Automatic annotation (TrEMBL):
<dbReference type="Pfam" id="PF13411">
    <property type="entry name" value="MerR_1"/>
</dbReference>
<feature type="domain" description="HTH merR-type">
    <location>
        <begin position="33"/>
        <end position="86"/>
    </location>
</feature>
<dbReference type="GO" id="GO:0003677">
    <property type="term" value="F:DNA binding"/>
</dbReference>
<dbReference type="InterPro" id="IPR000551">
    <property type="entry name" value="MerR-type_HTH_dom"/>
</dbReference>
<dbReference type="InterPro" id="IPR009061">
    <property type="entry name" value="DNA-bd_dom_put_sf"/>
</dbReference>
<dbReference type="GO" id="GO:0006355">
    <property type="term" value="P:regulation of DNA-templated transcription"/>
</dbReference>
<protein>
    <submittedName>
        <fullName>MerR family transcriptional regulator</fullName>
    </submittedName>
</protein>
Length: 161
């Protein structure tokens, strides 16, 4: 599995992700991988440099590195943590990550939230210094609902007699 261009590599990753219903959790990244994304991941040491002096500078390892990034993003991990997990991985490790990640997705597919839509309008409702609620459909809460939620989040003093 070799690719002549970074665009071909990105397209193959997108095809795999679409076929296996893999997308980043919580809208933390775009649902598609672009050549620009691959270059950014390279700058963050998530993907190896292209092979030098080759007509096909991207190979299976590059492909599997990108698949691993997408699988870990689907679990909600930030890129800094993904970098820690993937740095120095051999191709056999990356194949195992791909296989294991697919098994996890298949076993939890019924529990997953629907994929994010680019047309969603989110509403953030601050509750206090620590908490906020997000509505994916721009829905508001009534003042009574907000008060009730705040009451749940506010610790009650305990009697220490």
């Amino acid at each position: 599995m070799n690719f002549k261009t970074v665009e071909e590599l990105a397209s193959a990753v997108n095809d795999w992700c679409q076929q296996n219903q893999v997308s980043p959790a919580s809208g933390q990244a775009s649902n598609t991988t672009t050549a620009r994304t691959v270059r950014y991941y390279r700058s963050q040491s998530l993907v190896d440099a292209p092979l030098r002096n080759s007509e096909e500078p991207y190979d299976e390892k590059h492909y599997l590195q990108l698949i691993a990034v997408r699988l870990l993003q689907a679990k909600g991990l930030p890129l800094s943590r993904i970098q820690e997990l993937l740095i120095g991985r051999k191709i056999t490790d990356l194949r195992r990550i791909q296989k294991q990640g697919l098994k996890e997705i298949e076993s939890t597919s019924s529990d997953r939230l629907p994929a994010l839509s680019t047309s969603e309008t989110w509403r953030m409702i601050p509750l206090n210094e620590d908490w906020l609620i997000a509505s994916r459909r721009d829905r508001a809460l009534s003042p009574e609902q907000i008060s009730a939620i705040r009451a749940i989040l506010t610790p009650t003093p305990t009697n220490s007699n």
